[in-house]
Amino acid sequence: MKALIIDDERLxxxxxxxxxxxxxxxxxVGEAINVDDAYEKIQQLKPDLLFLDIxxxxxxxxxxxxxxxxxxxxxxxxxYDEYALQAFDVNALDYLLKPIQKERLQETIKxxxxxxxxxxxxxxxxxxxxxxxxxxxxxxDGERCWxxxxxxxxxxxxxxxxxxxxxxxxxxxxxxxxxxLDEKLDDRTFFRASRKHIINLSWIEKxxxxxxxxxxxxxxxxxxxxxxxxxxxxxxxxxxL
Length: 241
Prior knowledge:
Elements lengths: L1 E5 L3 H11 L6 E6 L2 H11 L3 E5 L7 H7 L5 E6 L2 H7 L6 E4 L4 H16 L18 E6 L2 E6 L3 E7 L2 E6 L5 E3 L2 H7 L5 E3 L4 E4 L3 E6 L5 E5 L4 E4 L1 H11 L2
Helix pairs in contact: 2-3
């Protein structure tokens, strides 16, 4: 597992890097001193894992995650326990409080390796592949943040220049166009039902004929989405044997 350490404190980076030497499954491929440096190295090195400080000069670790289309596994490194726990619920993979304790790091590595074994290996070039069912994305709405598996997202709904993301009982808004999102998503999993909606096909519970040749799709959880007449023909063709 390729790891990138992101922290503005040189001694903190050195300490963590030396602790990780004991774990043969974790290879530190680089270090970054701030968000801009980290963004460039993520594009270059394609790490599987980020050890990410939250508070850094210029931009925060949160802002880095907003810049990424697809988020690797993330372990937060922070001296601010209350701040981290307030910003995230339980969706982050883990937190490490400074100074990092050996025993606590061991727990984190166990969790990481277990998580890795549950995911399918990706063989397609990261730059060219689309976001699929096993990908994890970072969603931020105001002060609330989530790491969300796309398999848990049942619906995207356009509202002006924003998109409402439906997962669990949450419906945060992100600043992005539905067209831009549609280009990033794997169409084997996500279907553009209309100008306003993209649905997760695995969440479909029932389909009914609707007005003017359209369809009404009911999703698990109770949401109903109308498939436009134009898209209904494509939907039927796509879902037929």
